[in-house]
Write a structure and sequence with these properties.
About 50% of the residues lie in helices and about 10% in strands. By secondary structure, the protein is an alpha/beta fold. Strands 3-2-1-4-5-6-7-8 form an 8-stranded mixed sheet, sandwiched between helices. Strand 2, helix 2 and strand 3 form a beta-alpha-beta unit. The chain is globular and about 60 Å long.
């Protein structure tokens, strides 16, 4: 299958970046925005307000008409995790059977506890669900800086063909069939990045941040393996690679959200008009862990702080006074 005509749904920072990357890879790209007025402004200015200073490639068609997805060889859903079901539902009537629909959100649906490909399967039953995730900032990808990600789909040939179609000299997708592992890595690392940000905002030092990241990764591994993920996926780009990136850079919205909380800003006020997916994922992650009787103290502490159950200082004390144990 030649994936030549690609539709990107979502004209925010990540959608704009991926549209540019796919155009550089030689694909014909249509960018579909969800808000008609905002999309018209992007079409006129060739720039998303979510990604200032980065020009949208002139070859990219920009529209707010979801019907333009008809005939697409593949669709990237680049919307927040909690909005993915609505976008997939709106997209479904335009799709031809078997079209790969690739989730580019890193989260778990809060109401249903469903992973992103499960949401696609329910909302667009004729689609072939897939997932793209990894250590990537939108500004880097949009400007053509070197980036590697993981693209997972269950038919191996589909995953390989999509990776070849999307890849270029600066954007390198590694293909996988471990859909669940890629989904879990992206969702869980956002929660841990908030925790790393809280440690940084509280001024606890680089040693504490490294300890939290390492112990948090151990939790991610336990969670992933319990839900069927492969170890090599969790230690790869979409797991450990993404965790390293987002737990140490102020370009990460989850990390900066955590910093604000650590500095004393209430969680409800800390987002500062920027989406932190981990804020929605934390409680879901812990609910799923409880169902499987998994111990995830770092993620649980983050979820409790975000829910207002405990304060930041109480969460830190609880983690520091846990019983000593073997690693």
């Amino acid at each position: 299958m030649a994936y030549d005509r690609i539709v990107v749904v979502g004209a925010g920072a990540w959608g704009t970046a991926l549209a540019n990357a796919l155009t550089r890879a030689g694909r014909g790209v249509t960018l579909i925005g969800r808000d008609a007025a905002a999309t018209a402004a992007i079409a006129a200015s060739r720039q998303s307000p979510r990604l200032p200073g980065v020009r949208l490639d002139e070859r990219i068609a920009v529209t707010a008409d979801m019907a333009q997805a008809a005939g697409a060889d593949a669709v990237l859903l680049v919307v927040p995790a909690q909005a993915l079901r609505a976008a997939a539902t709106a997209l479904a009537p335009a799709l031809k059977a078997g079209t790969p629909v690739i989730a580019c959100a890193k989260g778990i649906e809060r109401v249903t506890h469903k992973f992103m490909t499960e949401v696609i399967a329910e909302a667009a039953p004729g689609a072939l669900p897939a997932i793209l995730s990894g250590p990537s900032f939108a500004a880097d990808v949009a400007r053509g800086l070197p980036t590697a990600v993981t693209l997972a789909a269950r038919p191996p040939k589909t995953a390989e063909a999509l990776a070849r179609a999307f890849g270029s000299a600066s954007f390198r997708p590694y293909h996988s069939t471990d859909v669940r592992g890629v989904e879990i890595g992206g969702a869980a690392k956002n929660v841990l990045a908030i925790g790393a940000g809280i440690v940084t905002g509280r001024g606890l030092g680089a040693s504490a941040a490294a300890a939290l990241t390492a112990r948090g990764f151990a939790e991610l591994l336990r969670f992933g393996k319990t839900f069927g993920a492969r170890a090599e996926t969790l230690t790869g780009l979409s797991g450990l690679g993404d965790l390293i990136l987002t737990c140490a850079s102020v370009q990460s919205r989850n990390f900066t959200y955590g910093i604000a909380i650590g500095e004393g800003t209430p969680p409800a006020d800390a987002a500062r008009d920027k989406l932190a997916e981990g804020a929605f994922t934390a409680s879901v992650l812990i609910d799923l862990a409880i169902e499987k009787k998994l111990d995830m103290p770092v993620a649980a502490a983050v979820a409790a702080v975000l829910d207002g159950t405990i304060s930041v200082d109480e969460a830190i004390e609880a983690l520091l006074t846990r019983p000593f144990r073997a690693e």
